Amino acid sequence: MEPIRIPRFRSLRLHVGAKGSTLRSRPEPWIVRVHGCSILRQVANRKYEDPHPNSLDWPRIASMFAGVFLLTALAPASIAVSSTGPLSPSWGKLDLELRAAALSDPPPAYLDVIVHMRVPERLLNPDPIFVPYWPDYRLYSMLTREDMEVLEDYWKSYDNVPGESQLPSAQHLLVIEKAMRLVEDTNEATTWPRLQSLISRLANLEGIELRLSEFQRSLHSVRARVTPAAIDHLALDRDVSAISLESMVVPQLDNSMNTIDVGYVWAQGYFGSGVRAGIIDTGVRTHSNLVITESMAFGGGTDTNDYCGHGTRVAGIIRSNHATYQGAAYQSSLYNAKASTPYDCPGTASAIQNAALWLTDTNPGKPQVKIVSTSMANETEDDGNHFLSRFFDWLAGYRLVLFVQAAGNERDPPVGKVFVPGAAYNVLTVGASDDKNSPSRLGDEVWSGSRRGVLNSNRGKPDMIAPGKDIKSTDLSGGFSDDTGTSYAAPHVAGLAALLRQRYPISDSLMLKARLINGDYFWRSHPWDPTWAWSYIDAFKSYWSGSTYSGYVNNGQTWSTSVYLPAFYTVTFTLVWNREMNSQYQVIGLSNLNLEVSCPNGAKDASSSTVDNVERVSLTTAPGQTCTLKVIGASVPPAIFTQAFRVVGFTL
Questions:
Q1: Regarding beta strands 208-211 and 614-619, do their DSSP bridges make them parallel or antiparallel, or are they unpaired?
Q2: Dist CA 500 CA 507 (whole Å)
């Protein structure tokens, strides 16, 4: 967490009325986070009284916030004065948590940090123009008073801004385009070159591994993995304003939680609280680090204990609250549906179906789970039409549930196709990676025993890859031990889904599925890759896949919307939809939808698979411009008539 976080203009509300204008910060505690510095909180909470009740005195507002930004720049240095110990003066740029971690004995091998660039312009992204009272004050110093009044009138079209917009939209558009050109010109002349120069310098420093720099050129920070010895060199750079610890420093669930970057989502305050998740497995054994909300047996008898160790491990990957081996969603409500026979590992298809029906029962007093991890499979290669696959397609659409299914393991080469029900269209199927027992992604490989592909089809399955080799989790002895398989990859994805459900509580199963697939570590476009599938799980990118669109298309029709693509910024969109079902086993049909993004300068990307119900496009443009995102109903069966879909896009 950064030592000081001053509210951006987005976190401010300006109320205009007959008694004058009052600029005040919202009372939420996350707006200002200060370690031992009360003056900044006083500044952030001070009121600005406008002597002219029907106008905005932007110079006075700018003056006030100039003081706040000045304090922001000086704050690290002031903290350094109060610190103790033999620190380099440059360490005034480090937050307290990072200092403590770097000075620990023995020192860590590496630290994940966020390097903040000293950007005086702070303009960067023109999107704030469209958010009331958020634009950088320097932008207003470049606008005329008349331009300001036009923007003020434009903002009145928002529900949370008092008053009614009076000016024509054409006049709004002229000023918006002018403001956007000012932002782009400033970024092209100053911001981008400085940020690129900083990235180039950091890349040449020993002991520093840049992370995700390829799509963060339009931000004022760069994520990096550094050795303690490299921190001095990093802090001495003239364009580095501060360095903060990226996320929690304790290892979680061995290394796999660090691999998928779930610590970033935890650092934002999301641990799965209030989210109900379920597992269909071999039961769960009592363990001091597992809290199970409710259990039910479906394989015979009433014993919900685990006698195989499989279900207990899966539960720990989602829900373990151990200080070192934490599960992905360790504050979620976890429901245990045992589908195996009483004292053995195998189960039956009917037990799996009954378990799924119980977990997703929406009646009062029932689990009402919306995210289910299932690792039990019929060891038959799947073409998507097995009765169990059709059952899950129906239940996923009927009850709007995200089923996360393990792809299946291959004991001997060559690797075969995914097992039933892994080829079901509406489930999220997960293969396994070998993370080399290291938090770094460098050298990661798809586990050799992870099944892939669909029987007699070119469809892309699995949908995602997640760590599954040598995963340390809760075991039958009451401790922790390692095991390998796609069974342990699936709960990584289900746990992340629970975090995303807490962050975006109105997300339905399709939206969650799109966010998870869009969060690809490699940041690829299309088509599906036979090795890494659509996505190698990345919590950071899924978390920031916050642009969402819901819509419908008929056969031959096109849905479209305008999207702004900032300059030099890679934006990725993922489209998902369901195979439509009439009943548990009767298929209505599968629509063929295409996805396209195109820009006025001719930049374009399109995805048009004829067999998958996932499409993804990715585009980097320069200069920044407003582009068109399209979903095309290439073929919607008459029995479906209108096809619903979801699209998400990465935005930060």
A1: unpaired
A2: 8
Burial category of 300 from C-beta neighbours within 10 Å (exposed 0-12, middle 13-18, buried 19 and up): middle
pLDDT tens column, 43-65? 333 333 333 333 444 444 444 44
Find out whether the peptide bond into 505 is cis, omega within 30 degrees of 0.
no
- Between 510 and 255, whose confidence is greater? 510
pLDDT digits (tens, 9 = 90+) for 9-21: 332 233 332 223 3
Residue-range domain boundaries for the chain: 4-245, 256-545, 548-649
For domain 548-649, the CATH class is mainly beta
Q: CATH topology for 256-545? A: Rossmann fold (3.40.50)
* Residue for token pair 């068109």: 628
According to DSSP, residue 187 is labeled: I
User: Residue 215 corresponds to which tokens in the numbers above?
Assistant: 């799509």
Separation of alpha carbons 9 and 7, rounded Å: 6
For residue 67, the SS3 value is helix
CA distances from 98 to 107, 132, 221 (A): 12, 35, 16
d(C-alpha 403, C-alpha 463), whole Å = 12
Distance between alpha carbon 99 and the CA centroid of its chain, in Å?
Answer: 28
**Residue 588 confidence (pLDDT) above 90:** yes
Q: Quick check: 390 and 333 in contact, CB under 8 A?
A: no
**Position 354 pLDDT exceeds 70:** yes
Total-model pTM: 0.65
Specify the length of the chain in residues: 652
Closest CA to 22 of 62, 45, 50: 50
Tokens 């993804």 found at: 616
Residue 94 in tokens: 């480090």
Tokens coding 342: 């009483």
Give the separation between CA 304 and CA 295, rounded to whole angstroms.
6
Residues 186-239 have pLDDT tens digits of 777 877 787 778 788 888 888 888 765 343 444 456 778 888 888 888 888 888
- Specify the pairing of strand 419-420 against strand 378-381: antiparallel
Which residues on neighbouring strands pair with residue 12, listed in sequence order? Answer: 25
H/E element holding 632? strand 625-635
Percentage of the chain modeled with pLDDT above 70: 78
Output the DSSP codes for 561-586.
EEEEE-BT--EEEEEE-PPEESSSS-
**Cα 87 versus chain centre, distance:** 36
Burial call 552-590: b when 16+ CB within 10 Å, e when fewer: ebebeeebeeebbbbbbbbbbbbbbbbbbbeeeeebebb
Q: Largest Cα–Cα distance of the chain, in whole Å?
A: 79
Place of tokens 């009943």: 583
- Asked whether 540 and 638 are in contact (CB, 8 A), the reply is no
Closest CA to 462 of 437, 438, 487: 487
Distances in Å between the Cα of 11 and the Cα atoms of 132, 238, 506, 516 are 10, 29, 22, 28
What does the pLDDT look like over 375-396, one tens digit per residue? 888 788 999 998 899 899 999 9
* Identity of the residue numbered 342: P
Tokens of residue 438, six digits: 């290291």
Residue 480: helix, strand or coil by DSSP?
strand
Please name the residue that has the structure tokens 């799965």: 272
pLDDT band at 637 (very low <50, low <70, confident <90, very high): very high
**The predicted structure's pLDDT at residue 306:** 94
